[in-house]
Write a structure and sequence with these properties.
Distance between the termini: 41 Å
Number of strands: 11
Helix content: under 10%
Length: 118
């Protein structure tokens, strides 16, 4: 069984910063891509950023230059450093991992709330 646990969300003022972490645990052989998604009230879940095992990254246009995704393969952990936060970044943030395991597939975390006040 594979679990993803996120941490680091919270309430911050506009212009502030937060760092999200997501650690995968369980019967994991390896992890391919890892990523962060977000879902605001009344909106669809959208990709924020993702990173391959080799470190190649991709960002949504809305966060380019403000957010940085990174990972520690030895710890099966992905991070999202969020700077210059805006009220429109308010959402529940989810991590996703493409896990090679007894049951290989995409696994999701439970989500962490990020609220940016103006």
């Amino acid at each position: 069984q594979v679990q993803l646990v996120e941490s680091g969300g919270g309430l911050v003022q506009a212009g502030g910063f937060l760092r999200l972490s997501c650690a995968a645990s369980g019967s994991i052989f390896s992890i391919n891509a890892m990523g962060w998604y977000r879902q605001a009230p009344g909106k669809q879940r959208e990709l924020v950023a993702d990173i391959t095992r080799g470190g190649s990254t991709k960002y949504a246009d809305a966060v380019k230059g403000r957010f940085t995704i990174s990972r520690d393969n030895a710890k099966n952990t992905v991070y999202l450093q969020m700077n210059s936060l805006k009220p429109e970044d308010t959402a529940v943030y989810y991590c996703k991992a493409e896990v090679v395991s007894v049951i290989t597939g995409d696994y999701w975390g439970q989500g962490t709330q990020v609220t940016v006040s103006s």
